[in-house]
Design brief:
about 25% helix, 15 strands, about 325 residues, elongated, eleven-stranded mixed sheet, alpha/beta
Length: about 325
């Protein structure tokens, strides 16, 4: 953003061009100087905003210039109706952003907690309305217990909710309510299994291209594979622990994966490097995968180079 400010000083024509381009300023970040954020919000007019909050340490040279969590909250929450993309990275206990008002333009929401299972964060995040959300990426944040209108998702990632259980039926309701999902990734979740055998019909996701189950318990993965079908999937990753007491690993190998056999054969023929490994108390089906590109707003690391001091830029991309 400082580059844009310097370009404005080159010539009157350049200044007028940039000042007449609100989209060039439509971003606010906790890593930017306070005055820069204020100017960006003013210059962007009513243009949809990208909001970025980084809870980790920024460059020591700029600590005195950046906003605290409370100050950034005061500045950006009044613009909630303009948010289109929101990144909250390395959140801590005190870093809570109450999205308790409608966010009609918000299409992409990333929340990465600095600690496992940020307590009660979902109450603050989902108490508003997100009618146009398409991309939801939660790490250390659980789904709310009550149904929430997040229909229309194309990208869903949930990870590291240990200590904040998600009811399996609640998770499947969320998946079923988003039939246009193209990417689904579930990693190290604390899933509360149903007490009785479910009679729920399998959920068919015809548009799902990328399906990833990473480091789940055997019974969790087994249940999900039996209840989610992705006939046109081109990227499938499975890694599960089979050391849970009483879990029969053959249920995954002999039964659950049968529905995915055509998909796995197609991927193997296309890529040719897939393998099934059974060792160390776990099962993993892996291959040399082509990264499924998240439909993000852009490279935030290039916009905020100060993040590189902590090497945290990698957390923006999976």
């Amino acid at each position: 953003m400082s580059v844009l400010s310097r370009i404005r000083l080159v010539a009157v024509l350049w200044k007028e061009t940039l000042d007449g381009s609100p989209g060039a300023w439509a971003i606010a970040s906790s890593t930017l100087p306070a005055q820069q954020n204020t100017r960006n919000i003013q210059r962007s007019g009513e243009w949809p905003l990208t909001i970025h909050y980084f809870g980790g340490l920024v460059s020591w040279k700029r600590q005195s210039d950046v906003l605290s969590n409370f100050q950034f909250l005061q500045l950006t929450i009044p613009t909630l109706h303009r948010w289109k993309v929101a990144w909250f990275d390395k959140l801590g206990i005190g870093d809570i952003f109450p999205l308790d008002q409608p966010a009609p333009l918000l299409q992409e929401l990333h929340i990465h907690s600095h600690i496992p299972a940020l307590p009660q964060a979902e109450r603050y995040i989902f108490c508003g309305q997100l009618p146009n959300i398409k991309h939801l990426d939660l790490e250390g944040v659980s789904l709310p217990e009550s149904p929430v209108s997040v229909g229309g998702l194309r990208f869903l990632e949930l990870s590291r909710t240990l200590g904040r259980p998600i009811a399996m039926n609640r998770l499947l309701e969320t998946v079923e309510g988003n039939p246009d999902l193209e990417h689904l990734s579930l990693t190290v979740l604390d899933l509360h299994m149903p007490a009785t055998l479910s009679t729920r019909a399998a959920i068919v996701l015809d548009r799902l291209q990328s399906f990833r189950l990473r480091d789940l318990k055997g019974e969790e993965a087994d249940y999900l594979i039996r209840h989610i079908q992705a006939p046109h999937c081109v990227q499938f990753h499975l890694s599960v622990a089979i050391s849970s007491p009483g879990f029969d690993a053959s249920s995954i190998l002999d039964t659950a994966l049968q529905a995915f056999e055509p998909v796995l054969q197609k991927i193997h023929r296309t890529i040719g490097t897939s393998s099934l490994d059974i060792e160390g108390g776990g099962i993993a089906w892996t291959y040399l995968e082509i990264l499924y590109p998240p439909r993000g707003r852009g490279n935030l690391v290039s916009l905020f180079p100060s993040l590189g001091d902590e090497g945290s830029g990698a957390s923006f991309f999976k």
